[in-house]
Design a protein that fits this description.
alpha+beta, Rossmann fold, Elongation Factor Tu (Ef-tu), domain 3, 3 domains, six-stranded mixed sheet, six-stranded antiparallel barrel, 18% helix, globular
Length: 420
């Protein structure tokens, strides 16, 4: 199968210190033959120098000397590997509370989350946080990888106890049970990663890699409503195409077809799609995630920053909004604070009207606060200088997110997920 025609699955990983996340990713890279020969030789040499009688696959992803010395991962790394059927991108996100912002950032574009649990420790406080963020970001599917089963004698009873504890956690959320898969693994030994484990005959499900391969992007897509923000207006300066006027951008959410009636925001002008161009071909329909050029049947005033939507799916247009905020900057978010709100490629001024609450990431509720500090997650009300055309995050992830930018330093201070 041609690499460009393979399906693409984006994954976020989360685990506490020593849960074996780096080892799991390294094992996936090794078992899919995604490591170069010199990388494998370096792992073999380093493992031998450390006195290990096994290959330390965590070395495949730990690229910083400091994090190797400390035994922790402190940044978000994007790791690529593939099989004959599927391309994968893993956002390797740290799970410590002080790096909540990193997990939010890494998981925000992911369709699948792999949450690691150490079989010896079971469900712990950080497991709550990892699942809370997966639920907050509306990740389509969660894999709970119960790791280090080799250190608990491959016990089915321990696996079932952890599964029951996690199920109790899921009941505190609105996440659907059918969107969660439990797999007992040993990343170090390669049990149930790419091959079925003979040590755990009681487990009859897919291996981790097999499970990831059967997931379909169409089942994991964020939304059914189409959102097409215009990046560029194309007017070729050639005689052959002197009357061509196309609008290029990336399609988010649903499908657009030739003949669809569309509305342009913010002007509210309407037209119909005349043609859709994908590279050097004309196509009848564009799928979510496609970078395309659209032409319209009639002349419409449309420029960079405008949005094209189906006329039957026009989003909200308001000057007030409520959002869940993750604070990603040391500068606290306070009531009355003024920021640049960037929604897509559009920017408006925003003022914090009210901080309703800070949300506890262990599902224990909320508390009233007068500010949100670094890594805090809270519910905030904003007033904008002019309307933006938005969806709730539940409806369309791409059109339901924004960032807040400091007016003076132009640093990003917050990431927002629109509720209404």
């Amino acid at each position: 199968m041609d690499i460009q025609n393979r399906k693409l699955i984006q994954i976020a990983t989360a685990g506490s210190v020593d849960d074996g996340k780096s080892t799991l990713i390294g094992r996936l890279l090794y078992d899919t033959k995604s490591l170069t020969t010199d990388k494998i030789e370096a792992i073999e040499k380093s493992s031998k120098q450390r006195g290990y009688d096994y290959l330390d696959f965590s070395l495949a992803t730990d690229g910083l000397v400091a994090e190797r010395e400390q035994g922790i991962t402190i940044d978000v790394a994007h790791i690529y590997f593939s099989t004959a059927k599927t391309n994968f991108i893993i956002a390797d996100t740290p799970g410590h509370v002080e790096y909540t912002r990193n997990m939010v950032t890494g998981a925000s574009t992911s369709q699948v989350a792999i949450i690691l649990i150490d079989a010896r420790k079971g469900v712990i406080e950080q497991t709550y946080r990892h699942f809370f963020i997966a639920n907050l970001l509306r990740i389509s599917h969660v894999v709970v990888a119960i790791n280090k089963m080799d250190l608990v004698g491959y016990s089915e009873d321990i696996y079932l106890k952890i599964k029951a504890d996690f199920d109790a956690l899921v009941e505190k959320s609105d996440f659907r049970q059918e969107q969660i898969t439990f797999i007992p693994v040993s990343a170090l030994k390669g049990e149930n990663i790419a091959r079925h484990s003979e040590e755990m005959p009681w487990y009859v499900g897919n291996t981790l890699l097999d499970h990831l391969e059967v997931l379909e992007p169409s089942d994991l897509q964020e939304s059914s409503v189409a959102r097409f923000p215009v990046q560029y207006v194309i007017r070729p300066k050639t005689e052959a195409f002197h009357d061509f006027r196309g609008f290029s951008g990336k399609l988010y959410g649903g499908i657009l077809r030739v003949g669809d009636e569309v509305t342009v925001l913010p002007s509210l002008n309407t037209s119909k799609i005349k043609s859709i161009h994908f590279f050097d071909k004309e196509i009848e329909a564009a799928a979510p995630g496609s970078s395309i050029v659209i032409t319209l049947e009639t002349e419409v005033d449309l420029s960079r920053g405008d949005m094209m939507v189906k006329s039957s799916e026009v989003p909200k247009s308001e000057k007030q909004l409520t959002a869940t905020i993750c604070q990603v900057n040391n500068k606290a978010l306070k009531v009355g604070g003024k920021y640049i709100l960037q929604h897509g490629i559009n920017r408006v001024m925003a003022k914090v009207d009210q901080i309703e609450s800070r949300i506890h990431t262990d599902f224990t509720g909320t508390e009233e606060v007068d500010q949100l500090k670094l890594n805090d997650i809270g519910r905030v009300h904003f007033r904008l200088s002019k309307p933006i055309h938005f969806d709730t995050y539940d409806t369309n992830k791409s059109n339901g997110t924004f960032i807040l930018i400091d007016e003076g330093s132009f640093d990003t201070v917050s990431v927002g997920f629109i509720e209404g």
